[in-house]
Specification:
Layout lengths: L1 E2 L4 H12 L5 E4 L8 E4 L5 H15 L4 E4 L16 H28 L3 E6 L13 H20 L5 E8 L5 H8 L2 H8 L10 H12 L10 E4 L12
Parallel strand pairs: 1-2, 2-3, 4-5, 5-6, 6-7
Bound molecules: nicotinamide-adenine-dinucleotide (NAD).
């Protein structure tokens, strides 16, 4: 099951997983046609999330992989000095509550089956501070990282692995919308990427595939940074 399936990273991951032979369930707030089963739901709503898994089980029989990837990054989430409580709560709900709910109601299905892999999309801002702040987004992704680590430990002996995937800036609608409004901020961020470019959604999909597959069978409670070198850099090449 892939959430945020209508978006940049979710769609690319659904395509890659399907190419590898998976039966993909795509879930998004928006109407879409991604996945063998394409569902629409608001993942901040507990009843909707519980119902979603019931439907997937009855239609496909088993659930092996959760890619909890839906999220938002609105422009009214900014410096702590300027961000309204409403914006803070909206971002926390979409980015952190949704992951909590998808794990709470999804992991039991993995435990009932042959075990499986949970991949929660965090971000490089979960491990590095940015002067161009989006305070609720950053805090929500820090929460996703800590939640994933703890779940990885809790379920380590029960066949369910849980890891956080931390992309660097990826060229998707989410980032384009943010930077189209502020090209100066985009240029400022690019300076810090050793590779000198934003990532492609397919590159994040490849990392999600690794975490979903048995190739990562000894890996749990970890964060996988796929960020063009950002987190490893002190200075970057000219
Ligand atoms: N693009 C980047 O640079 C970048 C970097 C680091 C992390 N991320 C994270 O990667 C994930 C995917 O981002 P993307 O770049 O593909 O963004 P995107 O905006 O293209 O896709 C996100 C999708 O999530 C869906 N969504 C939002 N709220 C939802 C809800 N309540 N219920 C169901 N669906 C909901 C949206 O409709 C959208 O289709 C997000 O969690 C984002 O924070 C993105």
């Amino acid at each position: 099951m892939i959430t945020g399936a209508a978006g940049g990273i979710g769609r690319a991951t659904a395509e890659r997983f399907a190419a590898e032979g998976a039966r993909v369930v795509g879930v998004d707030l928006r109407q879409h046609e991604v996945g063998a089963l394409a569902l629409s739901a608001d993942l901040t709503d507990e009843a909707a999330v519980a119902e979603l898994y019931g439907r997937i089980r009855s239609e496909l029989g088993r659930i092996d992989v959760l890619f909890n990837n839906a999220g938002i990054s609105p422009t009214d989430d900014a410096s702590v000095l300027d961000t309204s409580l409403e914006a803070w709560e909206r971002v926390q709900a979409a980015n952190l509550r949704s992951v909590f709910l998808c794990c709470k109601h999804g992991i039991p299905h993995l435990l009932e089956g042959a075990g499986g892999s949970v991949i929660n999309t965090a971000s490089f801002v979960a491990v590095l501070g940015a002067a161009t702040s989006q305070i609720s987004y950053t805090a929500s992704k820090g929460g996703v990282l800590a939640l994933s680590r703890e779940l990885g430990v809790e379920f380590a002996r029960r066949g369910v692995r849980v890891n956080a995937l931390c992309p660097g800036p990826v060229d998707t609608p989410l980032l384009r919308e943010l930077y189209a409004k502020d090209p100066e901020q985009a240029a400022r961020r690019l300076v810090h990427v050793p590779m000198g470019r934003f990532g492609r959604a397919e590159e994040i999909a490849a990392a999600a595939l690794f975490l979903a597959s048995d190739d990562s069978s000894f890996m749990t409670a970890q964060a996988l940074l796929v960020d063009g070198g950002i987190a490893g850099a002190y200075t970057t090449p000219l």
